[in-house]
Design brief:
With 407 residues, this protein is of the alpha/beta class. It contains 14 helices and 17 strands. Helix 5 links the parallel strand 5 (116-120) and strand 6. The structure holds 4'-deoxy-4'-aminopyridoxal-5'-phosphate.
Length: 407
């Protein structure tokens, strides 16, 4: 069904050769962060070995090549998400940083007392709290799109929430806790009919699903490098030029200015207006290698393989007595979140760790979801392209063993 050579792909991830607790590592915590292929590790070493220098400042050779390499990444991101212009790609520290930027700067320009912001019931805390802070500051109102038992958004309720008061709709493309793929094209279309902007949190989407920001007609789209086989400390904010130009800068400092006097400062043009100070140069430059890695495999191939693995794991986990899958949406990506009767997720996680199997347990920075399902948290196995059916078999055997010990 798939045309990827998974064993060859695994070979390119050196960490997958290591053991944990005397067992071969089975890494199923990819929703938290993915492992890095050798090409990314090599690029990081090459940067510090050959190129290290500040960007956007120096006249000297090294500064020029590092500046050029940083801008190569920007254009690579532009192509990757099919943005109309490279200056619509702002390099940030990550998804959280990108969302805070939009909440602060869009909020400053466009949100006033009595206005409404819509988020969904399945957001990561980073797509809840910045909007709550904005609402508190501006006396605006936060509204939440509810979801059903399967973890799918209630689109009728969404339509009822939308009005001319709605200034922003901020939703994730894929839920990190449930795996639900949300109908964002429809969400965007409906928001635009009311004149509202839409921010899509693509932190769990960009490594699994082809994204075309122009086709989606999305206003803002954000993601993190470290969840897409890239380095930590770098992320992206895509924003439509028209919005970005109307927004005030986020932070003041070097690089974001044109002229500074003590009387008045004029701001730099896009994208630099939103990139104050020295960025994470190494991560900005080497994100390029991560996107190359994804492009070489082909994101459609990655998705097809991961879908196959997800279906296999979903079936296989049914063998575990008392296991309840949390998040059973029809459209789902790469996440298996579950609880088992009579056990606590943490205890299962500890036993799996002894077997060399890395999963995440807890509320996954999405406490409101856990509240809705009336559970303390889940065990979450989240997939990447290097995972295999054999690893899923080991997970299922490990969960069975844990349940036998705990119940
Ligand atoms: N949104 C979603 C859906 C996520 O999964 C995460 C990371 N778990 C974030 C936002 C935050 O990303 P970061 O911690 O890289 O800023």
């Amino acid at each position: 069904l798939n045309n990827l050579d998974i064993q060859a792909i695994r070979q390119s991830f050196p960490i997958l050769k290591r053991e944990v607790n005397g067992k071969p590592l089975i890494y199923l915590d990819n929703g938290a962060t993915t492992q890095k292929p050798q090409a990314v590790i090599d690029a990081i070493i090459a940067y510090y070995t050959d190129m290290n220098s500040n960007v956007h400042r120096g006249v000297h050779y090294l500064s020029q090549i590092s500046t050029d390499a940083f801008e190569v990444t920007r254009r690579k991101v532009q192509e990757f998400i099919h943005a109309a212009h490279d200056y619509e790609v702002i390099i940030t520290k990550g998804t959280t940083d990108s969302i805070n930027l939009v909440a602060t700067c869009y909020g400053e320009a466009f949100v006033n007392e009595g206005d409404e912001i819509i988020i969904s019931a399945m957001e990561h805390h980073s797509n809840i709290v910045p909007w709550q802070m904005l609402c508190e500051q501006k006396k605006a109102v936060l509204k939440v799109i509810p979801m059903n038992e399967a973890g799918e958004l209630d689109m009728h309720a969404y339509q009822a929430l939308l009005s001319s008061k709605t200034k922003m709709v901020a939703v994730n493309y894929v839920s990190n806790a449930l795996g639900t793929i949300n109908p964002i094209k429809e969400i965007i279309k409906l928001a635009h009919q009311q004149g509202a902007a839409v921010l899509v949190d693509a932190a769990q989407a960009v490594q699994h699903i082809k994204i075309d920001v122009q086709e989606l007609d999305v206003d803002f789209l954000v993601f993190s490098g470290h969840k897409m086989y890239g380095p930590t400390g770098v992320g992206v904010l895509y924003g439509k030029e028209s919005w970005l130009n109307q927004m005030p800068p986020y932070q003041g400092g070097g690089d974001m200015i044109k002229d500074v006097t003590f009387e008045k400062t004029t701001y730099n043009e896009l994208p630099f207006k939103f990139e104050a100070g020295t960025p994470n140069i190494e991560a900005g430059i080497t994100l390029n290698a991560a996107i190359d890695f994804i492009n070489e495999l082909g994101i459609e191939n990655i998705k097809a393989y991961e879908d196959e693995l997800l279906a296999y794991a979903t079936e296989k986990l049914k063998e575990v007595d008392g296991l309840r899958m949390i998040g059973t949406a029809k459209e789902k990506s790469s996440v298996l979140s579950f609880v088992v009767d009579g056990t606590h997720p943490y205890d299962i996680g500890v036993i799996l760790d002894k077997l060399g199997i890395a999963v995440r347990t807890g509320h996954h920075c999405a406490q409101p979801i856990m509240e809705q399902f009336e559970i303390p948290g889940t065990v979450r196995a989240s997939l990447a392209v290097y995972n295999t059916k054999e690893e899923i078999d080991a997970l299922v055997a490990g969960v069975k063993r844990a349940v036998a010990m705990l119940v």
